[in-house]
Amino acid sequence: MAVAGCTKCIKYMLFFFNFIFWLAGGVILGVALWLRHDSQTSNLLILQFEGHQAPGTFYISVYILIAVGAVMMLVGFLGCYGAIQESQCLLGTFFFFLVILFACEVAAAIWGFMNRDTISKELINFYDSAYIKAVDVSGSPSKDAAIKVLDVFHNTLDCCGKGDDTALFKQIAGTLCPKKSPADFVTNSQSCHTKLIELFSEKLYLIGLAALVVAVIMIFEMIFTMVLCCGIRNSPGVY
After folding, report:
1. Which domain holds residue 176?
2. Which Cys-Cys disulfides exist here (predicted)?
């Protein structure tokens, strides 16, 4: 029941693409684990202030990426084995999982596009809530906790303030940002708002690029799988 001619070429091309797919799953899994344990994001997202945890929307996309990477490795192995064995059953199962993965990826891409600014905005709001308490001259009970939260932001992102800081903040900036010199606040102050936007924009861009590469591979795999299944069905000895 072995296929021949162009169909045999398709068989080995499908095996090759499945191997690449399996490798891509491993790479995505590794990148997702790195994003999950990256020191910059971890330091910020474990913070708590006034009983509220720092927003963890970013981790939703990371956990989705971990699940996708693991499933891709499993499905890639299934596709490789099905192609070599020329099994219509395995290839049909592989095609089914590909369609499900592709649909989930499209849904995740739509969600990510609609919420692309949400992650940085949530953390900016979290930073601002601590910032207001830290510069409060009335002696708020949570002032010390707010200063500690800002200290983590400033050290992690190498920033200080919101970029439009008041004269009051500049007076106490030496305490909140001990690594910055007075000249930095006048001429080259690094806004924590800008740094937060840059941080998560870079990471979301990396996730989006990985998803695009995987989507292209999946489209080719679905085409080759259908062609190979038809070739197996029409080969001599298959009824």
Report:
1. 5-234
2. 159-192, 160-177
